[in-house]
Automatic annotation (TrEMBL):
Keywords: Cell cycle. The keyword Nucleotide-binding does not apply. It comes from the Eukaryota. This is Enhancer of rudimentary homolog.
Amino acid sequence: MSHTILLVQPGSRPETRTYSDYESVNDCMEGVCKIYEEHLKRKNPNTPTITYDISQLFDFVDQLADLSCLVYQKSTNTYAPYNKDWIKEKIYILLRQAAGQSD
């Protein structure tokens, strides 16, 4: 359980920047998925059920102006930065584990 801060900048303007914090990296990755799901709901307000695949989620992540995480490192008492590629890798692992549990 490492405290994780998610930094998001959806647009090119700096004032679109926001951040969220989570108790763990997995909670943070679920948060990224929720951001995408909210985006889909806004784009498709009349669709009762939203479905997507991981490639669509990754395209969304790639089109964000900036997305990064700061993960608390207990050993050094600092936060380590991670980029979009690391975030996508962690999301992939999380979703793969979730899919494996639902079988």
